[in-house]
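This is your field. Pick holes in the following sequence-structure pair:
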Amino acid sequence: MPVERCSEGGKPGFRFGSSGKCYTYTEGDTPGMRRAREKARTQERAAYASGFTGKSYGDTEYDFLNEILLAEEVSC
């Protein structure tokens, strides 16, 4: 499942998958957009660390990097 765009209360945002929390930002606020996207990615990493096994992207490089992040979280 990818991090995807969403909207809530008329504001744009990002979430992990189709049912995750929508992290919103004010349109035109680039730093706010980056924070919202990072929160959705944090949600994604937490899901994988908790045992979620679905694919996030078909992109092999992303999958490789995600496996490294998960391995580091597990070994801590």
